[in-house]
Each structure stands twice: as structure tokens, then as C-alpha cells.
Amino acid sequence: MGQTLCVCSRSAITIDNKRYYFIQKLDEGGFSYVDLVEGAQDGRFYALKRILCHDREARQEAQTEMEMHRLFSHPNVLSLAGHAFMERAGKTEACLLLPYISRGSLWSVLEKLRDKNSFMPEARILHILHGICAGLKAIHDKGYAHRDMKPTNVLLEEDDRAVLMDLGSMNRARIEVRGSREAMTVQDWAAQRCTISYRAPELFSVESHCIIDDRTDIWSLGCVLYCMMMLEGPFDLVFQKGDSVALAVQNPVNIPQPCRYSQGLQTLLGSAMVSNPQERPDINWVLEQVRHLQTLELVASANMV
């Protein structure tokens, strides 16, 4: 992909010699904006993510996010359709052109269920979880970790296929911490880049000599699974009340009883949300368990007919 971009009018933008028309704003964050745009040539809709880069470090972070997207060609990881940097009024803006998924995030689906006082059936949870695990496996297999797994970072296609997005916090899966200074650097980075109520326990108080690895994602995956089961994250209320999430994550996860979901799903949740990362499984084990539970679900459904 080339790095050329020009704004041809207020309502159109050109990336790599292809024009895209602005439709509407979709989202807005601290230093980023997401717009819905339509390709003039192909008529397809795209999400255009624009990141304001205030300094060289921010530009490098945006560059890294682009490179992370380009590493993957996988149905469960959001692809990159185009990218560019633009200089405007003395400031740099990074533009990432991403496929637009109209159904939105897993979080928006869960919110609607909560508003209707409904719930997500186990078969649907397992189907979505399978896609999330497949995307995480693709990331882990390349030696990286997502580091910010949460329901808002999971998009859902029409068939409930999960697509992982927001690769801006991704880095090498294995981080060797040698000394208190390095530990503080990792801890500060995690505080900035890893959402607090989905952050793994080992990232709250990083030990001065330790290994941080891709099992941070397994903890966050457990939080996402809990959210699909209970329609809220396990530590959302702790955070909202102003209590310490860092302390709360040290305790075993509490699954409110009675629980409508199978013992197998509850056991899987408990396995992922173990505060000691050494006792957590890897993504291959989790994916295997999800497939096993899906098989059991199919057999149970067949027996009911």
C-alpha cells in the first residue's frame, strides 16, 4: 500500500488513488475518530479510523497498528483495506481504512439483550466464543498478544462470526521483565493501553523479575465470556463503584447461582479466570474445550428433537 492521501473536498477522501465519500460519523475517542465512508469504485462501505498523532511517538504507534493489521489475513481478525498518513495544519493524521461491519460490536448486542431483560443462549455464546478464540489463536500463533480483549473490541458479522478489532495495544506475546524499572514501564504501559476491568491481574502489579505472556489474553477472554453469560463484565460494578479492581482480580471469580448455563461452560470460565497466569491454559486448550462443548450442545439439541 502506498502512503499518499489527499482530501479532495470536505466530503471525499482519496487513499491510494481510490476515492471514498464521507457518509456519517460512527465513533469518537480521545485522539481518534471513526467515520463511515463509501468507496466510489466498489460501492462498499468502510470504517475510516483517523488517529491524531501529536508527536513522533504517537505516529510510531499508529504505524505499528497499521503493521499489526497487515500481519493477518484471517476471517476472525479485522483486515486493513488501505492506510495513509496525512499532514494537516502542522499535525499528522493516520488513516486506517477498515471493512465496515454493520451489526457493530458484541457489547452493543449484549446491551440490547440486557435492555430487553433477555439472555444469550449457550449455543450462541459458544459460536461467538469459537470465533473469538480462532482470532486470538491466529494472533498468538504469530507470537503476539492482543492485550485489550473486551466486548467492544469484538465485532459481529450477520452470521455472528466474531471479528477482533483495535489492534493498537498489540505487542510481542512474551515480555521478559528484568528489574523494577522495566516492571514499572510495563505496568505504566498496561495502565494506559489495557482496559482496567478486563486487565489481567499480573499487569496491575508487575513483578520485577517475571515473564508476561499471551495468557493475559486468556484472562480477558474469560471476562468477555462472563460478560456474554451475565450481560456485564465481572469487574464492571467494582470499577463503577470506585472500588479497587486490582484487589478484586486477586479473588476467584464468582458465578452467581443458580446459573442457566452448563457446568462445562462455567468450568471453562473458571479455568480462564485464574489469577496466577502460570495456572491459566493457552488458547489451543480453550479452543479445544469450546469445540467439545459445541459438540455436546449439538448432541443435546438432537436428543430434544
UniProtKB/TrEMBL annotation:
Keywords attached to this entry: ATP-binding, Kinase, Nucleotide-binding, Serine/threonine-protein kinase, Transferase
Membrane-spanning parts: none
Segments forming domain Protein kinase: 20-295
Stored CDD domains: STKc_16 (cd13986)
Domain of life: Eukaryota
Catalytic activity: L-threonyl-[protein] + ATP = O-phospho-L-threonyl-[protein] + ADP + H(+); L-seryl-[protein] + ATP = O-phospho-L-seryl-[protein] + ADP + H(+)
GO molecular function terms listed in the Swiss-Prot or TrEMBL record: ATP binding; protein serine/threonine kinase activity
Enzyme Commission no: 2.7.11.1
InterPro entries, A to Z: Kinase-like_dom_sf, Prot_kinase_dom, Ser/Thr-specific_kinases, Ser/Thr_kinase_AS
Gene Ontology annotations for the cellular component aspect, listed alphabetically: Golgi apparatus
UniProt protein name: non-specific serine/threonine protein kinase
